[in-house]
Amino acid sequence: MTGIRVAVRSLDRLYREALATLLAGQEGMVVIGATGDLAEFSRLCRLCPPDVALIDLSCASSGLGELAEVLPLLEDVGIVLTYERLSEEAVATITRAGLTRLVPHSRGLTAVIVAVREGRGESRPRRPRPPGLTERDLEVVALMSAGYCVTEMAAALGISPATVQNHKRRIFTKMSVGSQAHAVSLAARCGILWSQRRTVADRSGLTPREIDILRSIARGHSVRQTAAALGIKSKTVEATQGPLFRKLSVHNRAEALAVAYDLGLVHDA
Question: Which of 47, 84, 158, 244 is the right S-S partner for 58, CB 3.0 to 4.6 Å?
Answer without folding.
Answer: 84
